[in-house]
Specification:
Blueprint lengths: L13 H11 L16 E4 L2 E4 L4 E4 L2 E3 L3 H11 L5 E2 L1 H9 L9 H13 L9 E4 L3 E4 L5
Helix pairs in contact: 2-3, 2-4
């Protein structure tokens, strides 16, 4: 059975990921299954997230997001379909222990939903997975 390496780095740590990828790229058994995080943007139906500029366009309109809103959206969008608990999101975005994240994540996700899909916030890009957390859905409906 093969082995998996799952690695998550912050944008400012991208050089670490690049060094690791360079070191193992020539191994004949190595098969990357995810695109590089250095992509300049993430595109989905009616949604474009420009990572370097930290801007978001929804249905062709620029959407103003706070730092945490953008970071949460980008984190989830980099892993479409993956389910993350509020603690995992808090640890990744706030870079602090997520054990006592309180309502910070839920509040930020609520704001993102209202800004991206104000008419149908619950059917938007970020879905709640009852009892587990949140996931990014690449189609808003």
């Amino acid at each position: 059975m093969g082995k998996f390496l799952i690695l998550s780095v912050a944008d400012h740590e991208e050089h670490i990921l690049n060094k690791i990828m360079e070191a193992i790229a020539d191994e004949p058994e190595f098969v990357p299954i995810a695109p590089s995080l250095s992509s300049a943007s993430l595109s989905f139906p009616d949604l474009e997230i420009r990572l370097k500029e930290q801007t978001v366009s929804c249905r062709g309109q620029l959407v103003t997001l706070t730092h945490h809103e953008f970071a949460v959206l980008a984190y989830l969008a980099r892993h479409p379909g993956w389910v993350f608990s509020a603690s995992q999101i808090y640890e990744a975005v706030w870079d602090r222990d997520g054990e006592h994240c309180g309502t910070a994540v839920a509040s930020v996700i609520g704001q993102i939903r209202r800004k991206l899909t104000p008419d149908t916030p619950k059917a938007g890009y970020i879905r709640t997975v009852l009892g587990s957390g949140y996931k990014f859905n690449s189609s808003p409906f």
